[in-house]
Amino acid sequence: MSLTAKEKIEYAWLLFKDGSYTRTMIAHKVGVAEKTITEWKQKYNWEQKAKSIKQTREENLISLHNQWAAVNEEILTKQKGIPTSAQADIIKKLSSAIKELETEIGYTEAYQVCRKLILHIQKIDFEKSKELIDYLDSFMQELLKYEL
Questions:
Q1: Do residues 110 and 99 share a domain?
Q2: Which of the given ranges, 52-61, 107-116, 125-134, has the highest pLDDT on average?
Q3: In terms of C-beta density within 10 A (0-12 exposed, 13-18 middle, 19 or more buried), how is residue 98 classed?
Q4: How much is the pLDDT for 148?
Q5: Long-range contacts: 84-89, Cβ < 8 Å, 24+?
Q6: Are residues 111 and 45 in the same domain?
Q7: CB–CB of 64/94 below 8 Å?
Q8: 112 and 42 share a domain?
Q9: What is residue 140's predicted lDDT score, i.e. its pLDDT?
């Protein structure tokens, strides 16, 4: 089962932002030329994107909870507990974002878990870890198809 062009770009992006893979390794895993990875890196501004997503899931949750608390504090102190329609909309959006971060697992999180599992198994049985890598690569490619 081969990946579409869009899926290859997404898979390459996941590997790139992890920071553990060279362009050559990414190209090999994705099944494209190394030059293609370089082109995608420039075209999609991967360097800048990678810097902007260094914030962890937990840090994002803390930030969202703080924003939610600030809006609620303003409602309680300035409007006697009655939100404006804009504030109600903000609270609804923040609550939705918090719920999604707390309950959903995307391919980025799945990738991180798979990577940690491989590193763990490499310590125990290096040969088995090589076999597992193929299965996890296949799993991630399949997961990408559902996420896109």
A1: no
A2: 125-134
A3: middle
A4: 45
A5: none
A6: yes
A7: yes
A8: yes
A9: 80
Q: Which of 111, 148, 105 is nearest to 19 (CA)?
A: 111
Q: How many domains does the chain have?
A: 2
Of the candidates 132, 138, 135, which has an alpha carbon nearest to the alpha carbon of residue 120? 132
For residues 24-51, give the mean pLDDT.
Answer: 91
Q: Which domain holds residue 40?
A: 5-53+106-147
Structure tokens that stand for 18 in this block: 């992890």
Q: Does one domain contain both 142 and 110?
A: yes
CA dihedral 111, 137, 46, 58 (to 10 degrees): 0
Section 67-84 average pLDDT: 91
CB of 21 closer than 8 Å to CB of 29: yes
- Token digits of residue 37: 């990875």
Residues 90 and 114 in one domain: no
Say yes or no: 24 and 96 in one domain: no
Distance CA 58, CA 43 (A): 30
* Residue 35: half-sphere exposure toward Cβ, Cα within 13 Å: 0
Residue 55 has φ and ψ, to the nearest 5°, of -65, 130
d(CA 112, CA 54): 13
Higher pLDDT, 12 or 141: 12
